Amino acid sequence: MTEAGQHFLKHVATGIEHLDHAVRTAGTIARGERGRLRVRLYSSIAAGFLAELLGQFRELHPAVDLQITEGRARDAIREVREARLDVAFVVGVPPAGDCHSKPLWTEILLVALPERHPLAERKE
């Protein structure tokens, strides 16, 4: 993991509200004031609050080259290990022993079925 990635994850542990500060600091460490921050997102979380937050970061820090890509968790973790990414947001992956990881949020997954569907009566 790069120095920028390690610093970023250290600050994420304190909560989502500190995410902007961590990205800004990691970008500064990566290349000074005109740095680069390489981020990989899993496609299912690329929208919503994370996209908004990264968009705000771009507006607040136009001098930082924020490189965002989408891809599989397995590839993202490998690229963090190889220092080709600074940070990766992944879903459903057990923590890698040689990478720092922090859960950011949880979601309840629901299914909608027609009332007469055979599974509609089941509780689970």
Describe this structure in words.
The protein is built from 4 helices and 3 strands. It is of the alpha/beta class. Strand 1 (36-41), helix 3 and strand 2 (65-70) form a beta-alpha-beta unit. The chain has a 3-stranded parallel β-sheet. The protein has one domain (3-89): Periplasmic binding protein-like II (D-Maltodextrin-Binding Protein, domain 2, 3-Layer(aba) Sandwich), CATH 3.40.190. The longest helix has 13 residues, at 19-31. It has helices spanning 3-12, 19-31, 49-60, 73-81, and strands spanning 36-41, 65-70, 87-89. Helices cover 35% and strands 12% of the residues.
Q: Any idea of the CATH class?
A: Alpha Beta
CATH architecture: 3-Layer(aba) Sandwich
Structural class: alpha/beta
Strand fraction band? 5-15%
Summarize the structure.
This protein is α/β, with parallel strands linked by helices and 124 residues long.
